[in-house]
Design a protein that fits this description.
The chain is built from 11 helices and 8 strands. By secondary structure, it is α/β, with parallel strands linked by helices. The chain binds 1,3-dihydroxyacetonephosphate (13P).
Length: 250
């Protein structure tokens, strides 16, 4: 069975609830008959509910950009998987490089969040990727292996089927520098090969690995033509309904 591509919007810290609603009003008609790919929109927490309401019946799924691993507790400022489930979110981005860079998230923490997301039946989109200095030092593979092993530590193959991995080279995020389809495909192969070792051939063969980093309407087709690339995690170009719809309809 071929892997169903997944195209996800990561809005980061953009859009008020009113702006999010306006986006959905304009975006949904543009993808109304789209069945080839799974479409996921990840707004900030304050807009998740309005976007879920707007997406009802559309087939577009809604996710969060982060969560805490605990069900509840004295964790000021955090949001739990139970809370996300309760409002109807189905997906969650975990370990985005901006979380790693600005909020000190590491593989160990991301691993806890991943286990919690699986426990609560939220579909996790787990991010890995090297920074520019690591790529230039020839350490990309080493970094991807360390992150892949770290985030998947202790996860059984029997629980791993929902996991989606996003390869986001940090040097390509928000910079306009996209990895070439070949560079992305090579990195994806490294990740898939490691997942094969850790979780077995079936999980590896069915694992969707998304590419993220300056995906735009004009490069989406070439990226998606790579058999190793199973979708995209889109930042800046997902903020505009026309632009994100063009990417979805690559
Ligand atoms: P850009 O598409 O803005 O480069 O962001 C990529 C990203 O970080 C998606 O999670």
């Amino acid at each position: 069975m071929p892997r169903k591509p997944l195209i996800a919007a990561n809005w980061k810290m953009y859009k008020t609830p009113a702006q999010a609603q306006e986006f959905m009003k304009n975006f949904l008609p543009l993808v109304a008959n789209h069945h080839r790919d799974e479409i996921v929109v990840c707004p900030s927490f304050t807009s998740i509910s309005v976007v879920i309401a707007a997406a009802t019946g559309s087939g577009v799924a809604i996710g969060a950009q982060n969560m805490h691993f605990a069900d509840e507790g004295a964790y000021t400022g955090e949001t739990s998987p139970l809370m996300l489930k309760a409002i109807g979110a189905t997906h969650v981005i975990l370990g985005h490089s901006e979380r790693r860079q600005y909020f000190a998230e590491n593989d160990e923490l991301i691993n806890k969040k991943l286990k919690s997301a699986l426990h609560h039946a939220l579909i996790p989109i787990v991010c890995v990727g090297e920074v520019l200095a690591e790529r230039e030092a020839g350490k990309t593979e080493q970094v991807l292996l360390r992150q892949t092993r770290g985030v998947l530590a202790g996860i059984a193959a029997s629980a791993a089927a929902p996991i989606v991995i996003a390869y986001e080279p940090v040097w390509a995020i928000g910079t306009g520098k996209t990895a070439t389809p070949q560079i992305a495909a090579e990195a994806h192969a490294v990740i898939r090969n490691e997942v094969n070792k850790l979780l077995g051939a079936e999980i590896a063969a069915n694992l969707r690995i998304l590419y993220g980093g300056s995906v735009k309407p004009d490069n989406a087709t070439a990226l998606m033509a790579e058999t190793e690339i199973d979708g995209a995690l889109v930042g800046g170009a997902s903020l505009d309904p026309q632009s994100f719809a063009k990417i979805v309809n690559y």
